[in-house]
Amino acid sequence: MMVLKIISGDDLFSSSDLATGMFIFEKNLLGSMERFVTVSRKRLDAFTNVDVSVIDGGGVDVGVISSEVDVGVIGRGVDFGVIGGDDGVVIRVLMITPTSTKPQLITIKFSTDFDTIWQQSWNTSKGREQIDENEFHGKDKSQWGQLQLISQWDPFKDVLGDMWPQWATYIPDKETMIGVHSTLLRLIDVYRLDLNKLGETGQIETRSAIRPLTAEDFRNLVITAISEGKFNLASELTKTVVDLDNDPSLLREMMRLRSLIAYGRRQVDDDDDDDDDSDDENGDASTDEDDLMFDTAMNDMRLKISWNHDNENENLKWVQVFETYDPEEGFSIPEEEKELGINIYHQLCRGKAKKSVQNLFCEVHYGTVPYYFWWNVEHLHLEPRITMIYNIVSDAESERIKAAAKSELKRAAVISPTTGEYIITKNRLGRHMWLDNWQTDSLATGLGTRLTEATGLDCHQGAEDLQVAVYGIGGLYVPHYDYSRDKFKHGETRGRKMGDRLATLMIYLSDVQAGGATVFPLLSVAASPVKNAALFWYNLKADGRGLVESLHGGCPVLLGHKWGKLITVTYE
Ligand SMILES: O=C(O)CCC(=O)C(=O)O
Ligand SMILES: [Fe+2]
């Protein structure tokens, strides 16, 4: 006898066509649990020996199928629900369609080794059929990536009891699941992804996903967008929902959401008005009644809106980055640039870079070491210098560095500009690790020498420990400075006495299919990752003070993975 336990909750997840035998799905937030259960049961009718029970888990909705002899889901069709994760790790939910009665292992993987399968599915028009089932089975689970948070996620633990250890591997944590929606929203926003295409053909750039996003997927994105205060985007998304499906209950729901969006927009406008000291004379201001209606509606959806969410205030945030920089110096950023704020970053990410110089030439280096080595150098900017050095790393070195780093990657943090503490933020989505003592590592001896030759800076003793970073789909690092702002632990990096970061070398260990450029908003420069090339820039001026124009960031990865290795050369 198989048992399908549905753990009901109030959070969301973006897969819509919930083939039953499937386990992680999204509850209709505005609808009822019964609706899902009905669907589930109906689908389950296709199978014998399945017992359905519903448990209030207070978390995400998860259905679990188990049996005494095996644990699995039913069917063999493969689908993907999601394209990004909160930490930039690609999450693939393989939905199993009930076309076969043979139980299969549930497959939700978080690992990069799934890339091959992912690629195959992009590359074949009928990826779903052509994926070899064997790809999913019999693999060492330890390769499937980390889901550390899961063990703290009690509802599942309680319900699953003894089965917990077995299932823990398959269940994504709550933050990740919500992050998936956020990530997708950010990608839509930054890259202006065509919503209709995503819905009709599942097309992103020149590639097609295995399946398009459904009306229900978009509905879920609307809800996340509202809760993040992204009202303009939410409004666009409601149109897509309606274009894709004219189901009356969905239409009603969209009507309702649109009034929430309208309310939200008024709130934001009111805030702006407050800044201007112009009171509510336009008559648009919200009344207490509106507030109550809004709160109730949000409550019904069990959502809390965050008015201070990054996006609508992103411009502001970026301006703060400028303003927190060394106030004594009193440098000033032109007003118009402040206003453009984060938009410049996004424009550059979309490929709107205007390169001021393009001097591609070859250099032959006769270094201090007894060998000849040459590489192509492209100066993307001259004053200050930003240079792409091609083929500075070999394929073998790249692969060895990635392999050495893989098992130790952790979610990357940033230093808070206000407190100096390390914090996890959505402004840096990616994983990284430090390769300790790389100078003495056999991996690095040749490389360090080559880099020293190429940059003219001491990349051995003068450099920090090596940092290896990986960004999955949606991974990014918003514009920031690599040098420290004086008040924080200047001169000390990871326990070692060091100077400030004079220059950075970002070595790209992979190509990125789309997105993921390194951009310099104040210089209008964008560099697309090229495997084995290194991007070199200065962070400090000759006198050791911060170089304002070195403000830079990594754009969200749209397709593929971006691997990088950072070397920062220090200044005494
Ligand atoms: O990912 C990038 O392109 C830039 C990374 C970066 O700026 C950093 O890690 O400090
Ligand atoms: Fe940086």
From TrEMBL:
Which cofactors does it use?
A: L-ascorbate
Kindly state which keywords UniProt assigns to this record, in alphabetical order: Dioxygenase, Iron, Metal-binding, Oxidoreductase, Vitamin C
Q: Where is this region: Disordered?
A: 268-291
Q: Entry's PROSITE patterns?
A: FE2OG_OXY
Could you tell me which residue ranges the Fe2OG dioxygenase domain spans?
462-572
**Ranges that cross the membrane:** none
User: What cellular-component terms does GO give this entry?
Assistant: endoplasmic reticulum
The annotated regions of Acidic residues compositional bias extend over 269-291
Which Gene3D superfamilies does the UniProt entry name for this protein? Answer: q2cbj1_9rhob like domain
InterPro entries, alphabetically? Answer: Oxoglu/Fe-dep_dioxygenase_dom, P4HA-like, Pro_4_hyd_alph, Pro_4_hyd_alph_FE2OG_OXY
Which GO molecular function entries does the Swiss-Prot or TrEMBL record give? Answer: iron ion binding; L-ascorbic acid binding; procollagen-proline 4-dioxygenase activity
Protein name (Swiss-Prot/TrEMBL): Fe2OG dioxygenase domain-containing protein
Source organism per UniProt: Paralvinella palmiformis
